[in-house]
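Researcher: Last one for today. Full complex below.
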Amino acid sequence: MRAIGQSVYGGPEVLQVFVEVPEPEPGPRDLVVRVHATATNPVDTKVRRGGSPGSPVPSPPLILGWDASGVVIAVGSEVEHFRVGDEVYFAGNVARPGSYAEYVAVDERIVAHRPKTLSHRDAAAIPLTALTAWEALVENMGVTPTDRSSEHARTLLVVGGAGGVGSMAIQIARQVCGLRVIATASRPESAAWCRKLGADAVIDHTKPLLAQLREGGDDGVDLVLNTVQPMQNLPQVLEVVRPFGHVCGIVAPSGPLDLGPLFRKRGHISFEYMFTRPLFAAAPSRQGAILARVADLLDQGVLLGTRTTTMPWDQVQAAHRLLESGRSVGKTVLEVVP
Ligand SMILES: NC(=O)c1ccc[n+]([C@@H]2O[C@H](COP(=O)([O-])OP(=O)(O)OC[C@H]3O[C@@H](n4cnc5c(N)ncnc54)[C@H](OP(=O)(O)O)[C@@H]3O)[C@@H](O)[C@H]2O)c1
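Model: Here's the assembly. Have a good evening.
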């Protein structure tokens, strides 16, 4: 089969379009899926740059891509929930080859039927970011995914509102959990996107956060979903979180963090990593269940798709450059089957 692979670490130019590799064989609980569309995520660029530039990857070719929508073409001997011909979507497991390929093998427990009302292209934009946002809000911060009343709603700040994760987090928090949502965005187009997805207010992360919240009549926020490297902004985030509040970060800290201000507020801090369940086999089927729930919410029109940019998959290098600009809005999808 054809895939996009790399044999050395480095910039977007190391991505080889295409390499020929054997089709995957399903393990006992695996589905083999014909990939129709995949999406780019920052994890792709981080893994692509995962060693010193030009140094060899351990078992070439390394195949990136942890988002997909496609059709099941084979199932392992112990698969229970899917059949050949099922249309599915999933993020996958970063420890296994990704979906920049015509075919990919994935554990059925982290897969769901794709939303019926969405195309493969729109479906491929969803899984990784939806799992991240859902797990952060519901599993880490204890927000109830059924309370859509806005009475006495707690306020969530989404730092990086227009990014892939922010785009799902705004919607799940507002439309599914009934939180009041303030998002950060630094440009007119990213601010407009956050409002379209349901943000009640938008503030600019390049300016002091607390002053802007006060201008809008808020003394702080109850919850923060921080999609930015905490070494860059944690003091500001800890300043805006209210007593007893919760900050959930999704980027691994690159150095020691000063959590002193959180102690005085009896605050909580947690980290979300959406590959934890598949990596450690820690109740991975919860991810299949989350994706099934998200598919229903998309089909009901409660959640909107987040695809903003579509490219043929041979344009993967351009897609990586766009993502690495740090200025993408919503999601970029790569079409594998046009
Ligand atoms: N732990 C996990 O499981 C997990 C899962 C997914 C992603 N992540 C990580 O989370 C991060 C965000 O991922 P993503 O997919 O949302 O990224 P993305 O789509 O590339 O985010 C782009 C957005 O980030 C905003 N932004 C750029 N610099 C910012 C800053 N200093 N402060 C606030 N916002 C800023 C930009 O908004 P403006 O243009 O308005 O400035 C832009 O719209 C990445 O580091 C990724 O690796 C972790």
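The pocket of NAP is lined by residues 41-43, 128, 132, 159-160, 162-166, 184-187, 190, 205, 227-228, 232, 250-251, 272-274, 323, 326-329 (CB under 6 Å). The longest helix spans residues 285-299.
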